[in-house]
Amino acid sequence: MVLTLGLPDWLVLLETRHPKTIQLGLERVGRVWSMLGAGVDFPVVTVAGTNGKGSVCAYLEAILTAAGYRVGLYTSPHIRRFNERIHVAGRELDNEAIVPALSVVEQARGDTSLTYFEHTTLAAMWLFCQEKIDVAVLEVGLGGRLDAVNLFDTDCAVVTPVDLDHMDYLGPDRETIGHEKAGIFRPNRPAVCGDRNPPDSLIARAQALAIPLLRLGRNIEVERRTNDWLCRVEDKVFPALPYPAMLGAYQQENAAIAIAALYSLRRRLPVPMAAIRLGVAQACLPGRFQIVGSEPLRILDVAHNPHAACALAANLAALPRTGRRLAVFAMLADKDAGAVIDALVGQFDQWHLAGLSGPRGRTATRLAEQFAARRLPISIHVDVASAWQAACHEAKAADTIVAFGSFHTVAEVTALISGKSDG
Fold first, then answer.
1. Burial class of residue 389 in the structure, from the number of CB atoms within 10 Å of its CB (0-12 exposed, 13-18 middle, 19+ buried)
2. Total Cβ atoms within 10 A of residue 201
3. Nearest residue to 190 (alpha-carbon basis) of 251, 268, 294, 254
4. CB contact at 8 A, 416 and 79
5. Most exposed of 102, 129, 225, 306 (fewest Cβ within 10 Å)?
C-alpha cells in the first residue's frame, strides 16, 4: 500500500512514523544506504553552519549550472513545497520523480527506523545517482558530524558562520557547536570557513586532519566598490562581480564563500569567470530579506536565531526610514526569542505577535511573555495570517512590514500572499 502513496501522503507518513523528529547518528542511514547499492561517482560539496547555508548553496548551484554542469542540490527546510529541497539541473524535481525514490528507500530500509530527514536525504542522493549528475551540493540539516548528509564524503567542506542554535542537540557554546560543524571535514579534502572569528575547535579539527582551510578575512577577502565588487581567494582575484540579486551586505560574503569552494575544486570542476558573474547575479532564494511588495514595503526574512536577527537588524538599519516599521513575529518554542528581540530593539514601532502550531510551536501569548520587561508595543494574534493582515490594515504607504522569526512564519505569509498553500 505504501508504494501507491502520493507525495503529500508520503510526507505525512514520514513526519508521524518515527518517534523522534531529530535523531542524530549515521549508523542507521549508513545501513540503509548500503542496502540501496547506489554508488556516488560525482564530486560532493557539503555546506554546514548556523546561518547562510542556503544562500551559499544557491550561489554554488547557480554558478555551476552557468558553467554547464548538471547539478544536484539538496537543501532544507522548504518554504512552501517539499520539492524545493531537491533540484537537478537547476529545477525542482516533480512528485513523479520524488515518490519512486521514497518508495525505493522504504523497500531498502526493512525494519530500520528512519526520521523524515534521513529518509528524504537517502531518497535525494539515490535520485542524484540515477540522474547522472556532475556534482552534488548538499546542505547539512543540523550540526554536521552526525547529520545524515555527512554519510557522504565531501570533496569540499564549507562551514558558514557558527553561532548559537539547536543547543539541545549541538551543545551549549560556540566551541562545542563548532566541533560538530567541523565534523564534515575529511582528510586530504579542502575546506572553507565563512566565519571571521571561527571557534578554536573548528580550526583545531582542520589542523588535526592537516587539510587546507580557506578562511574569510584571512585568505578570502571581499572588496566592495560603487558599481561592483571583487573577491580574492589566496592570490587569485575574481574582479568586476555584479552585486547579488539577494539583498543584504552579507550576501557578498556568502557569494565569496561559494567562489572559494569552487576555487578549491578548480582542477576537478573548472569554472569560467563568466559563469561566476552570471551565477552571482542570478542566484535567488526565498525568505532572505525578500521584498514582496511596496507601498507599504513588505519584507520576508527567515531569521530565527540571534545571529540572523543581527543581520536582519543591519539590513533594516541600512534602509531609509520613511515611515513606521511593523514586525510580524512568530517563533518556535525551542528558539531564543529573547535574544532575537534584543537584536532588533529600536527597529520596530509595533510588534504583531503570532502563534505557530505543531509540536514545536509557540503561542502568541507565550511569546508575549518575552516582551513584559522590555516595554515594547505589541498586539497578539492567534496565527501568522491574522498578524500579517492586521499589520497590512494598519500600515500606510510609507511604512514597512517585516515578517520574520521562523521558516514557518515566512511560509505562512507566502501562502497567504499567493492565495493558497501547497503543503
1. middle
2. 19
3. 268
4. no
5. 225
Q: For residue 29, which of 124, 147, 131 has the smallest C-alpha distance?
A: 147
Query: Do 261 and 59 touch, CB atoms closer than 8 A?
Result: no
Q: From CA 346, how far away is CA 162, in angstroms rounded?
A: 25
Q: Which is it for the CA torsion 238, 243, 246, 247, positive or negative?
A: positive
- Other Cβ atoms within 10 Å of 240 Cβ, number: 12
pTM of the predicted model, to two decimals?
Answer: 0.94
Domain 40-69+134-282: which CATH number of 3.40.1190.10, 1.10.645.10, 3.30.540.10, 3.40.47.40: 3.40.1190.10
Q: What is the pLDDT of residues 220-232, one digit of tens each?
A: 999 999 999 999 9
- CATH class held by domain 290-418: alpha beta
CA-closest candidate to residue 165, choices 154, 180, 150: 180
- Say if CB 279 and CB 238 are below 8 A apart: no
pLDDT digits over 394-421, tens only? 999 999 999 999 999 999 999 999 875 4
Instruction: Give the cell for residue 190.
Output: 579542502
H-run or E-run covering 241: strand 236-241
C-alpha cell at 248: 543584504
